[in-house]
Design a protein that fits this description.
single chain, mainly alpha, globular
């Protein structure tokens, strides 16, 4: 049993693809056997305790599957990903947009011409993003740390902002008014410029942000599941960007023609995959918080893709992430440090742009709410606690279980 019991449950379902009813039936049988075994042992024996706790864990697993896999959603996701391979392969083969991005993921394919392999890898990583988000507390912690870092930068900007206009002097009233007007004008011009360029951040705070971000990157680079999840995020962003570009290019065509050519037609395998993945995650985040986050992010991305400064920044930042995740030993090199400093300064300018500021912060708050909802999901907590209790029974308590062996 791993440290993520929900992940074990879902991985087993993916490998075997049973129906929820079949899983529930087998778990009921297992629970019954464990309960019968427990009754054979003395009231306060360790053997009775482990059998009882194992039965509780089996029941929690059953509740988790029945609640989170309503409508066989997990099995549908596995089928969706398989069905979408041909559609995505064609998309990659026929559009320069994707040929320009074929290496812009951490788990790179070697052959540019192998569009099918790339499609399979991208679909696997997309699925991995959602599953890792749900299953891994550490991965959610990494995302929360990123949110906190962004908010730290924003707080530092606000704290550095002057609170009042410079004080008045003891000049005669007419001269004082003139002096005050000049100071106010000068102050206003400087304030506008500071908001555009970002207020100076203390060097120790800047180094702290850099150190913490580097630690996050190193953690991701050392875990294939996390790398795949990051690739899944890039895959999702590429799909959204591509669809929006397609929509712009075909804006003048009749709606019926557009739905036949674009991803969101009802018979699109990619559309169904994205829809089912969102539905699956909403079982943990709640429907409304995820809908709000999705809507805010879509609005933000529409603004960003029409702003050369923002789109260039995200492209450069993506390149930086890919390079450092693939080569974590280079993080402290002079070249990578220079790239970080440039990206950091540009991000602070964009962070304070009134065009993005409110929406930007809504996204971070919305993401944090979704992460907290996943973390505090009652069934996930119960499954984790029952798993911990069972592990403690098996390995940590000071007793020596002796089940009766039965021979045929």
């Amino acid at each position: 049993m791993s440290k993520h019991p929900a992940s074990d449950v879902l991985r087993s379902m993916e490998e075997n693809m049973p129906t929820t009813g079949e899983v529930s039936s087998k778990l009921d049988t297992a629970k019954e056997v464990l309960q019968q075994e427990a009754k054979k042992k003395g009231m306060f024996t360790s053997e009775r305790k482990i059998a009882t706790d194992a039965a509780e864990f089996v029941e929690s697993t059953k509740e988790f599957i029945e609640e989170k896999n309503r409508g066989e959603i997990f099995q549908e996701i596995v089928k969706d990903a398989a069905n979408a391979v041909d559609e995505m392969t064609k998309m990659f083969s026929e559009n320069k947009f994707f040929s320009d991005r074929y290496q812009m993921v951490s788990m790179q394919v070697q052959l540019r011409s192998d569009a099918r392999k790339l499609a399979q890898m991208r679909l696997t990583s997309l699925k991995s993003l959602f599953m890792t988000l749900v299953n891994s507390g550490q991965f959610r912690t990494l995302l929360s740390d990123i949110v906190e870092l962004v908010q730290t930068i924003y707080r530092q900007e606000m704290q550095a902002a002057p609170k009042i206009i410079p004080g008045q002097t003891q000049l005669p009233i007419s001269q004082e008014a003139m002096q005050f007007g000049q100071e106010a004008t000068s102050f206003g011009s400087k304030l506008v410029q500071d908001f555009k360029e970002g207020f100076p951040m203390a060097e120790d705070k800047k180094l702290e942000v850099k150190f913490r971000f580097n630690q996050i990157l190193k953690t991701i680079s050392n875990d294939p599941s996390y790398k795949s999840a990051i690739d899944g995020f890039f895959t999702l962003m590429d799909q959204i960007h591509f669809y929006m570009l397609q929509f712009k290019e075909q804006a003048g065509e009749p709606l019926k023609e557009k739905t036949q050519q674009l991803w969101y037609s009802e018979d699109s395998a990619l559309f169904k995959l994205n829809k089912d993945l969102k539905l699956f995650v909403s079982n943990f985040t709640g429907v409304e918080p995820l809908d709000i986050l999705t809507e805010d992010f879509t609005k933000f991305w529409q603004l960003a893709m029409n702003d050369e400064r923002m789109s260039t920044f995200f492209w450069d930042f993506r390149t930086y992430l890919i390079d450092t995740i693939n080569n974590p030993d280079t993080i402290d090199s002079d070249d990578v440090k220079a790239k970080w400093n440039d990206l950091f300064d540009r991000s602070r300018i964009l962070l304070n742009d009134p065009k993005y500021n409110n929406l930007w912060n809504r996204i971070w708050v919305g993401l944090q709410i979704c992460l907290e909802n996943i973390k505090n999901d009652p069934l996930q907590l119960k499954l984790t606690n029952d798993a911990k209790k069972l592990v403690q029974d098996l390995f940590l308590d000071n007793w020596n279980p002796q089940f009766t062996s039965h021979r045929d």
